[in-house]
Amino acid sequence: MTTTTATRRLAAILAADVVGYSRLMGADEEGTHKRLKAHLVELVEPKIREHHGRIIKTTGDGMLAEFTSVVDAVRCAGEIQRPMAYRDRDLAEERRLRFRIGINLGDVIADGDDIYGDGVNIAARLEGLAAPSGICVSGTVHDHIRDRFSYAFADMGEQTLKNIARPVRVYALRTEPPPAATVARAFPIPEPAAARRLSIVVLPFTNLSSDPEQQYFADGITEDLTTDLSRLSSMLVISHNTAVTYRNKPVDTKLIGRELGVRYLLEGNVRRSSGRVRINAQLIDAETDAHLWAERFDGDTSDLFALQDEITSQIAFALNIELTVAEASRPTERTDAMDYVFRGRALFQGRSPSRNSYAEAIRLLDRASALDPQSAEAQTWLAGVLVNPVLPLFEATYFAGLRKAGMPEE
Fold it and tell me: What is the pLDDT of residues 11-31, one digit of tens each?
């Protein structure tokens, strides 16, 4: 039998729980559980890892995390609470999930993967004193961070906490926003990273059929499109598991673009009736909310899998061209190799290619290769454009040779 030896160490402890969790579960048990899980997986857990913390345990409505740095713990709390104000935004206020957070710095007993002691208990009691979406910290935490953050804290005085022998000085992170410059110094909000070129999310296609069981077909279209687009060169496609979190929510194009760091959204719907299916798809610019492309596809449902493959392939092919054209026409302050690649591709793949458009595409792609000699993208497309005008002549000569030799052309 293996035994572990308990040790002591100094740690910053973050305790959090959901405000009114029992009430929320009573009103919508499955929905509340699903949303809480999404918040934890998509926001809370990544933020804790980002700030070098670790989750000690989770409960039905809360969690306990440990940090080696109290500055990291407080910064993490702020970066959890701010985005939470925007999540569940499509729900009524009384249905939204909101966290309370308490943070303490103290000596803890470490036994295996768990920690115990007053250091932990105080953090849990502080969480109970916090307002919804608020943060309470102990005086010890405040003493350590006040020279590192200029954020305003409200002094709540000494508080008698349950099962804690001595009163604890408590400070609350003010819920009303202080001046913008103060907030920026305290919890600097990083500028969102620029969305990558050719980045897209395929939002869950909506089932407009009267039969809700047909949702599987709409889901199949969404998943296949995500897979097909992922195969395209230089394309960044958000995973289906992430995209599905936006199902049945109002589509705020610009917000989704910022949250996921993408330039484009593809959305659509599916309607089946009397052996026929109609699929509508539209491409949207996430920065401007402008519709760039829309198409309708009709088919016979006698072979659903073949139809699904055909339609998703058509959409993926069309989007490859439309996205290239969109990137080529996007204004830029400083042209780089990829800008020339997109412009060259747009001319080469254009709806009305000509001798002049091929010549200009070659010039642009040659310029891209000169700017970035290591660019496989520029060299591949340049080779494709150079070879393309020769193909008809090659094919004519090849098939003429087959005919002359009396061989079949197939």
Answer: 999 999 998 888 888 888 888
